[in-house]
Design a protein that fits this description.
The structure is a homodimer. In chain A, 42% of the residues lie in helices and 27% in strands. Chain A is α/β, with parallel strands linked by helices. In chain A, strand 6 and strand 7 form a beta hairpin. In chain A, helix 3 crosses helix 4 and helix 8 runs antiparallel to helix 9.
Chain lengths: 249, 249
């Protein structure tokens, strides 16, 4: 039996919702999780508002093996993720001793003031573990199944690299793509029949539109080669048959 | 008093969650809504699963003035948005007479079969209005406050252009950006004080990291010039003062 591990992502930040910043983290997390056999099942983008963050975290952490958040862990007043996650878990948000000492030493060595703003980056829910930040030092953290990371893509990616080896992964979903020169309307009936005949697969149809012409990418996914191969063969034969029809028509 | 109009977006599709397709519609909708004075307050990305789509639609349509969905309205078996939205509203999903006739005539004129798959694109919740699709004909639809549109970006954008003139809009959030050559830790305390002194504004701090150096974009938003201008001035003066400190240090 395949082992299914699911995840949700919570993207925190007004700047994504206003359109000012275009998110680059959703696609990256999706790629990484797919590669290691974890199914990303939902994403929520929420504003910098405590109630919204708390509600989203609590809704998804109960439903999934893992939760990943991005954004809102910097030093400014609009960075309220640590407080919100603490509230979601019902624990105090406080200076983490190790993070505080590390940041204090870091700024001292650079003869920079350890301002209240910078101290904020040492705050996390009581009992949280660090997620190391090799780029700008201030750590992310993990509490329960929730992994809290930075929103700046390069820092998020570096933090995620540190998280990946700690995750229990499931049976990877493998996939094969069949390029189809026809639009969905031409192959939809036959494709639906193939999906029904191969219930252990997930067959997706992704319409493409370019220069006035429709074509389709057909993607077959499954958790074993034994399930995948016959469904891919059926899709390929169906597309070839449509092509033959089109030639003789 | 400013008039606040809020919106949510539901992105429907396994392909976004698997990472195979990188979403381009969230940023576009966010830009358009911001430009016309509607606040996008949440986005949910859900898989091609009826229960998940129904739950997301019902959660957000009760909370916001408008809901916009993308994806899942094509002709294939994995396009289940029309059924799911119908279920969310508790109405039957059936062939829309006008859409059916339009599509039938379209395929007839092109001597193409009006397959069961193509007929699926005429299905919508009873009582829904069309959203015209100038690119590939098959319409989106609106029911209640929910606007259901295609996932292919060019078609989504064209449909949205048809929807925008029908929307009641609020007082636009205006904004000004101050480029700050310092990282958030340097300006965080002072910026927090400015936010507290200007409660009618939303001051966002967006950390940037490039080539080993941190800098920050500070964005002040408000619903009137009278609220915006003094806060922007305060931010500019604060950044100038930090620059003077840095020069004399």
């Amino acid at each position: 039996m395949p082992d299914i591990v699911t995840a949700a992502m919570v993207v925190i930040g007004d700047e994504i919702l206003s359109g000012r910043t275009k998110d680059k983290n959703i696609g990256h997390l999706a790629d990484i999780l797919t590669a290691i056999g974890i199914d990303l099942k939902e994403v929520r983008i929420v504003p910098d508002e405590e109630d919204e963050i708390v509600a989203a975290i609590n809704a998804v952490r109960a439903r999934h093996t893992y939760v990943f958040t991005t954004g809102g862990i910097g030093p400014t007043h609009d960075d309220i993720t640590a407080d919100s996650v603490s509230k979601a878990f019902g624990v105090p948000c406080e200076y983490d001793e190790k993070a505080y000492a590390m940041l204090e030493a870091h700024y001292q060595a650079r003869e920079m003031a350890f301002t209240e703003a910078r101290k904020r980056m040492a705050r996390m829910p009581r009992g949280a573990d660090h997620i190391d930040n090799p780029i700008s030092l201030a750590p992310g953290f993990r509490i329960g199944n929730v992994h809290v990371m930075a929103g700046v893509p390069s820092i998020f990616q570096a933090m995620l690299d540190n998280v990946v080896p700690t995750l229990a992964t499931g049976t990877k979903l493998i996939s094969a793509t069949v390029q189809c020169p026809f639009g969905e309307g031409t192959i939809g009936d036959a494709l639906g029949a193939i999906q029904r005949a191969h219930p252990d697969t997930i067959i997706g149809s992704y319409p493409k539109y370019l220069d006035g012409k429709f074509w389709t990418e057909l993607v077959v996914r499954a958790r074993s080669e034994a399930a995948l191969a016959p469904a891919v063969k059926a899709v390929e034969e169906m597309v070839a048959a449509k092509a033959a029809d089109a030639t003789t028509a």
